[in-house]
Amino acid sequence: MIKQTRTYQFILLCVGILLFASCNHNPLKIDVSGVSIPPVKIERLEKDMFAMPKDSIDRYTPILEKKYGRFYDQFVIDVINDGGVRDSTYNAGLRRFLTDKDIRHVYDTCEEIFPDVSFLENGMTDVFKHYKYYFPDKSLPKVVTAISGFNYALAFKDSTLAISLDMYMGKKSPYYFMLRFPEFKIQHMSKEFILSDAVYGWLQSVYKPNEDKNDMLAAIVHEGKIRYLEDALLPELGDTTKMWYTGKQLDWCKENEFNMWAYLIENKLLYTTDQTAIIKFTDDGPFTAAFNHDFCPSRVGYWLGWQIVRSYMKHNSKVSLAQLMAETNADKILQRSGYKPSK
User: Fold this and answer.
1) pTM for this structure?
2) What is the domain partition of the chain in residue ranges?
3) Closest of 333, 277, 279 to residue 302, by C-alpha
């Protein structure tokens, strides 16, 4: 009798373990060791530019053009002048940029913070392996770093993903306060956010909105698709880093998911095409104005869209990532998602 009882208890324990494992299994945590791609080697445009002799710009420019392709000209247009490399003001503008005392100090500071970018090379290599696993026929971008003079954090031009290191110098950088960057943004202008920001920026550039409507649901579902793809490429990364949320802000979203969803439904906002109304729930900022609460973050509409897509993929396991990104019908995704947040 004792032996039978122990056997029964052992079976229950095994069943419990299997059920727990199945409930907590993340289907996006896959083995990509068999995916073969060249290790990512990040080119350092800022190093090449600041190593350029200031009296030999004409001689060194073709070298940079050959190494960085058309991206170099686009970088010049965005940062140095509007006319690009062939503009008559190119030499003088680039010389001013490279000899500016503050820009030089920014470059030197970035050299101290980022003596090498192996952490980013390893991270992007893993991301690209995941991407090739899901999209074997898709091309991968070249990755470069730069100093943009605080013009942008990320840029995707001519199949090149550029990361401006001066936008990730750490939340205590005096430059961010002098330039009056918003406090909520400064909190995330640090090294630990580069990888997720780079992946998100790249995906946003590659996967433009393709929904067949221009309403709130289409906007938040498209964002949900981008965020779910980011989940697939960075399966170990937490939601707080991806969304720029604190732990308390993320907890607030989870605790108030039903209330936020009900608010959109009751106020007939889900299918509104009023861009002013949509922006209130999707724009970046310290909070979402519609939900006045200490821990309510911005972009909660996008967070809800993310949960819709997660639910859709959970309930439609045969839908591939490629099919998800190609789907243009946000209503279909919602209807087949089984999304119904509880109180």
Assistant:
1) 0.90
2) 43-206, 216-335
3) 279
